[in-house]
Amino acid sequence: MKKILLAVSTVALLGLSAQASAGNLKVGKKIYDRAFGRGCGACHDIASNPQLVALIKSGDLTKANFSTTLKEGKNGMPKAVDAIMAVGPVKKAGLSEDEAIDAVWSYLSQ
């Protein structure tokens, strides 16, 4: 009986985890589309600026550096964490700063 309960609990947790992951991808997309009112792509989809997806996929941009840049800014990139936290779906989901940054990272990394 204990093994069955453990198996059911594990399946339920995996299901919730997958559901949360899909939800975070959606929130990550909303952040990318809406931060700063015009979205991250307003700058990062322009050839002369850092191409986030390419940098992530090549391994040239680590999650730690991504997070630090969003929190502290870098060169022409302003601090973005306040703009991220102001996005409606972030507020609705009740995400912390790190969870919101993880959501954007997950969206860009897929």
Structure in words:
- The protein has 110 residues and is mainly α.
- It has helices at residues 2-34, 41-44, 52-58, 63-72, 81-85, 88-93, 97-109.
- The protein has one domain.
- Helix 1 (2-34) crosses helix 7 and helix 4 crosses helix 7.
- The longest helix has 33 residues, at 2-34.
- The chain is globular, with a radius of gyration of 17 Å.
Q: How would you describe the shape?
A: globular
Q: Which structural class fits the helix and strand makeup?
A: mainly alpha
What is the count of helical runs? 7
Strand fraction: under 5%
Number of domains: 1
Instruction: Please summarize the sheet with the most strands.
Output: none
Please tell me how large the radius of gyration is. Answer: 17 Å
Poorly predicted regions are: 5-20
- Total number of strands: 0
Helical content stands at over 70%
Distance between the termini: 39 Å
**Oligomer type:** single chain
User: Mean pLDDT, as a whole number?
Assistant: 86
Element order, helices and strands? HHHHHHH
